[in-house]
Structure formats: C-alpha cells, structure tokens
Write a structure and sequence with these properties.
By secondary structure, the protein is mainly α. It has 5 helices and no strands. Helix 2 (18-29) packs across helix 3 (34-57). It starts with a helix and ends with a helix.
Length: 98
C-alpha cells in the first residue's frame, strides 16, 4: 500500500476517538474472531497510549500558551479541548500547562 492510499484510508478517521480507529482497522484488516479482535485492539491501544504519552512528555508548549490559558482562566472563561485523544493522554499534557 502506498502512502497516498494509506492517507486516504486513514483520512476520514482523523479526530475520531483513537480506540474506535484501532477497533475499526483491526476488524478491517484481520480475520480474527471477536474475542481475539477485542484483545488485540486493547493491546494496540495500550501500546499507543504509552507511546504517545512518552512522546508528549518532554514536548514544550507553544510559546505563549501557558500565559494565554492562565489569563483566560483568570477572567472566568471555561476552557475545553476538542481532540481525538482520550483523557488519559490529554490530562497530563494540560496539567503541565497549569
């Protein structure tokens, strides 16, 4: 499969919950029985969370992000995110920002 085919296949899933993406592709790409698919999907997801968490652990925030979020919070704005990453990935990232 060439990279443009892969991009087309993955494209519609951008922003979706990552566990759903993994479940979809495990179902699409394997001939495993339901229980084995579920087990494999969970293992892939755990590995994914570990790798993403490790990758983002030392990534510095975009310049000005911490100050902007602090000022918005001080002024009473409710802050939220919109992401395909689950809380177990997003919470540590946001916690580092204060």
């Amino acid at each position: 499969m060439c990279s443009s085919d892969l991009a087309e296949e993955i494209g519609p899933w951008r922003g979706a919950a990552k566990h759903s993406v993994i479940e979809h592709f495990v179902t699409e790409k394997t001939k495993l029985a339901t229980k084995e698919r579920q087990t494999l999907s969970k293992k892939i997801y755990r590995d994914f969370v570990e790798q993403v968490s490790a990758a983002y652990k030392d990534v510095p925030p975009i310049a000005g992000t911490e100050e902007a979020l602090r000022k918005l919070a001080e002024r009473g704005y409710l802050l939220a995110t919109n992401t395909g990453f689950e809380r177990e990935i997003v919470t540590p990232i946001l916690s580092r920002l204060g």
